[in-house]
């Protein structure tokens, strides 16, 4: 029995790990593979009494008509798994009153994993036994049927059940087992199970007709036989389950591999995913990392403490990452800054005003100096573009500050949500100081690099854009303007329009591109998360089932 309990417990854990409760699983469910016992018999045949004496406990409600003569069903696995080593036991009964129709009863006992405990009272004709009738219909070979003969003590004087018990009256592959349960009088007198079993044993041993069968009779023997049978059935299913789990695990691994790593993991950044800020034509990443502690020591005790500290930091890390990844709230505010705040700030720059005719004229003439341009005001264009781009510095810096503010807020939140940190106030302060220090340092570096990027954008103009501009010559016009009409309104206006088009080309689309680039297909993301979770479950189920194998 102990073996069976530990075996079923392990399988139960495997089932629980897989979330396998018989529904919606891709595995032929483990529950389905585990045997279930149905105690079947006519009214008052002794079903409850047998069930209780097999378990060795009084647990069923008493009173006539409780089950209206229909079978009680007992999910043996549920019975076993809840039994701990102290022998406390919880049993879930599927009452026949719930299974109201005989159709349901048949569909239940017809299941190949259902073991039928066919209860027939010895004081009635076996030919009229309901249990044998049902068993014969759903299990014609009797392979799943255990014939149990009750009320042997109530047989007419001088009659004995030897022919049945020795399998001559009705042959079953599993030998018949006779039991003597407590009578109604015994129950009324509260005769306990131990005393009842003792008396049962004495009954068989002291009745000359049954003496030779004593070792094969009684409730205790029935419990043993049943346990052994269950153990064998369960074990016979294990190799199949194992190969199924191995196969499914391999399939999940392959599929996960095909999906690739999630963005954050690919970026390889421990604390924060990379935040891309597009300034000009390039992407710039604000990679913010944190190195909280670095200790060196040969001391094992110290190593233990260090391990604890690192574990707590890892938990903090995890929570912080969850905020950014979306598993916890907060990270989406960063996206809002790039998607909303930054473009709005750029719009406010109003390049059109900046490119007023006076300003264009001023910058173009200044750039020309004492040698007016001949074909196009090359230097003038460059100055105008530079003056526009330089004004982006302000919004870019403000964006970094805003992201920085959110990241700090998330550090605060994560610190609060890391329960383990509550226990160690000093560590808590250290972790938040280190995090803020890192964030400050990264903010400064990000600003420096972002501004450098703006400068780069000013220094190098996308030549293609100007090459594609419609040329006066190609239009059949005069490419060169007379020195006198060079600064006319229409000419200056065209320069302003070209510069604006160039600057617009750099910015309006940026956040869309950003979103597109970072926007992994949500279905793929969901699928990946789902697969990873299932894979983890299958691995723990595998470990549980391996342990069963090992314990064989
Ligand atoms: N003397 C004696 N009485 C028994 C034996 N088995 C059962 N009884 C008595 O028979 C009566 C019916 O037994 P139960 O175990 O309740 O039978 P059941 O099949 O569960 O009954 P229902 O649920 O009402 O169909 C009870 O009073 C039991 O004490 C037995 O082997 N010997």
Automatic annotation (TrEMBL):
The lineage of its organism: Eukaryota, Viridiplantae, Streptophyta, Embryophyta, Tracheophyta. Residues 1-190 form the Dynamin GTPase domain. Residues 487-548 form the Dynamin GTPase effector domain. Gene3D superfamilies: Dynamin, middle domain (1.20.120.1240), P-loop containing nucleotide triphosphate hydrolases (3.40.50.300). This is Uncharacterized protein. One of its GO terms (cellular component) is microtubule. Keywords: GTP-binding, Nucleotide-binding. It holds the Pfam family GED. The keyword Secreted does not apply. GO terms for molecular function: GTP binding; GTPase activity; microtubule binding. InterPro entries: Dynamin, Dynamin_GTPase, Dynamin_N, Dynamin_stalk, GED, P-loop_NTPase. The keyword Nucleotide-binding applies. It comes from Eleusine coracana subsp. coracana.
